[in-house]
Each structure stands twice: as structure tokens, then as C-alpha cells.
Amino acid sequence: MTRYRHREGGGVLMVTMRDGQLEKRSSGLLQLWKKKRCVLTEEGLRLHSCKGSGGGGPAPESGWSPKAKELRFELMTTVDCVEYKRGMVYFTVVMASGKEIDFRCPQDGTAWNAEIALALVRFKNLQAVQTGRNRRMSAEHLGSTGEDEEL
């Protein structure tokens, strides 16, 4: 996993875990596969559209839209429905709202679905640890008021 830091528009420092191309199934009537530049960060998955109508190869860096749709891990439930077919990995990202977003990528190397799933688990674990710390600090604060000192 390659990690590098970059500044987002608002000056926030983001850690990029993976940057590359995925295909996302459109939600329209025809459900066509559309190429997206995907940036996996510690916070979620950013999807950039291709500016041109594109040929078969990857779009050049300048061919990607600066606007991005963000799938944040805090709103993501799971990555599932993995299927391997004709050299492609098909998988679904399930959001907390119940919305399912279908993706596919070449089967070469480490599959995107595995990296997204691991990053999601890492995010949820960090969230759980932080919640536990907050509860413990809150309990310690309540305990230090002197209410329980009759023991």
C-alpha cells in the first residue's frame, strides 16, 4: 500500500492509500460501467469522473474532473458481493442508508475491494477505540466529583 500526503482544497492534509482507476456502474436505466479515478484515503473513497468521453485506456491526469464524489467510511457499512469473472473483480460498497454501489476492476495485483475493505475496518476500529476512550474519560471525570468517596 503506497501512502502519500497531499493537501485538499481546504488545506486539510490527506493520506492517500491508493490512487487509480475503477469502473462504477451507473444508477441509470442502462447501468453502464463508467471509468472513475478513485483515491482511497483514511477517511473514505473519492470518485473523480473522466472529463472526456474517453477511449479504452486510462485517462490522463488532466482528463479527470477536479470535483469528486466522496464515499466516507463513517457512512459506509461494508464491502461485499465479490465475484471474479473474465479477469475482473466485481464488488459492492454498501452505505449505511442501504444504497449499494457496484464497482469492478482488473484482477491484477491487490484488488481494490480488499484495500477498501481493510481501510474500512481500520477506520471502524479507530472509531471504536476513540469511543471507548471518550467513555472512559467521561466515566473518570464523573468519578472525580467526589460522589463515590464514602467507601
TrEMBL record:
GO terms for cellular component: cytoplasm. Keywords: Cytoplasm. Residues 16-123 form the PH domain. It comes from the Eukaryota. One of its GO terms (biological process) is positive regulation of apoptotic process. SMART domains: PH. GO terms for molecular function: phosphatidylinositol phosphate binding. It is found in: Cytoplasm. InterPro entries: PH_domain, PHLA1/2/3. The keyword Cytoplasm applies. This is Pleckstrin homology-like domain, family A, member 3. It comes from Oryzias sinensis (Chinese medaka).
